[in-house]
Design a protein that fits this description.
mainly beta
Length: 118
Amino acid sequence: QVYLVESGGGSVQTGGSLRLSCQASGFKFRLYCMAWFRQAPGEERVEVARITDDSKRTYADSVKGRFTIARDNAEKTVHLEMISLKPGDSAMYICAAALFCNGVWDYWGQGTQVTVSS
């Protein structure tokens, strides 16, 4: 059984920081491309950060310089470090995994809520 379980969300004020974690199980984590998406109410799900199996990172323009994605293959975990948070970052943050890093995602988590107040 495949699981992606996110944690670390919460409520912070503008300028605050959060560190999200995604614990994976049930598949060969080290072989997979991992990503964080976010979805605000009434909006489409968008990719904010991606890390390949060999740790190449890409970020959405809206989060570059503020968010950092990292993976720990030994712990089967991917993290998203978020600083200088803005109200526009408020969303459900969802972890995803793909064997082929081609934009087709094989597994999804349930998400963790991030709320940034002004």
